[in-house]
Amino acid sequence: MELVNKVKQGFEQTFSAAADFVVKAPGRVNLIGEHTDYNDGFVMPCAIDYATLVAVSARDDGQVHLVSLDYQCQQDQFSLNEEISFVENKLWANYVRGVVVELQKRGHVLSGCNIAITGNVPQGAGLSSSAALEVGIAYAFDQLCNLSISKQDIALISQAAENNFVGCACGIMDQLISACGKDNMALGIDCRSLDLTEVTIPDGMRILMFNSNVKRGLVDSEYNLRREQCEAAAKHFNVSHLRDVAIETFERDKQGLSALVAKRAEHVVYENERTLAAMQAFNASDITKISQLMAGSHQSMKTLFEITCPEIDFMVDTIAKVLGDKGGVRMTGGGFGGCIVALVPDNLVDVIISEVENTYQSETGLKESVYISQPVKGVAVI
Ligand code: GLA
Q1: What is the pLDDT of residues 141-197, one digit of tens each?
Q2: Coil, strand or helix: which one is 308?
Q3: Co-location of 174 and 250 in the same domain
Q4: Catalytic residues
Q5: pTM for this prediction
């Protein structure tokens, strides 16, 4: 069943009335610029045609009632007039609760509502299913209560929910692209100013995502540890964020950093440069350059930032061998499993998918999943 019908029907079955409107918030894939966002650096994601859908209608009793169609129709409810706390046994509901708390903190006056949620962004795959949920909920309240919040603020509120309520110290990339994505465009994002630059996908190139289906343990603790290491490096260079360390400064002043922190910082400093170069290479359709930059990014995530794993490296190597300099491939997202992203010419799409199908499972014992999407626009009422 089409996702929009699923959410409308699920809503009606639960609340015995039709929804007033449905919001669609996309997941994302990051083409380059990994672990740079919380260093105030540069990223280049696009929103994808896999999304979280939120169906909504108003209530007049100050209550929020929720149903998650993807978690056996689990329900949750809370009052807007009492303190909203974390619920242990329904993790999905905390994304909604967290967004409501952050909206209220900023003084927005909310009204009660019924909400049904479904989605097809694969979870735990590095394609930002949680950001899509947060952004979908923030936008749903914006629409329901006529709050006129800017898309940037929708993203910041959603990120704050994840940082303060859910407890993951993520950066701004995922929420910002889910809120602000553009049809057929990737966006170069300056994560300090939040300025967005449109980046074209070269003609005839497709964006493929392969989920390694590696179970991601330790993600949050390793993620937060990388953040701390980056902050330690920034302190060494006497700046607030590694964004402010140029390559020359890094090479000149890196002595005194521990070997480990130096590796982490080297990744971030060079990844920022690669991302800026990629924005130009994409706009110039310079596929050879894109190929090099994506390969450099992957190598750096593997050896310096140490966030890949053997299954992901195998997949990237397998695809890189077929692609040569005709496209690019790298791990995408937070790491330790999840997805890889490949920019592939039309005529190699089938070849590459079969190559992965023929080798990945026999090498790793895991079966991959494949997704294809061109960039789509950000959150909207549909
Ligand atoms: C996760 C976080 C993002 C970003 C990426 C790594 O997706 O949510 O903020 O840090 O990892 O680039």
Answers
A1: 999 999 999 999 999 999 999 999 988 889 999 999 999 999 999 999 999 999 999
A2: coil
A3: no
A4: 174
A5: 0.95
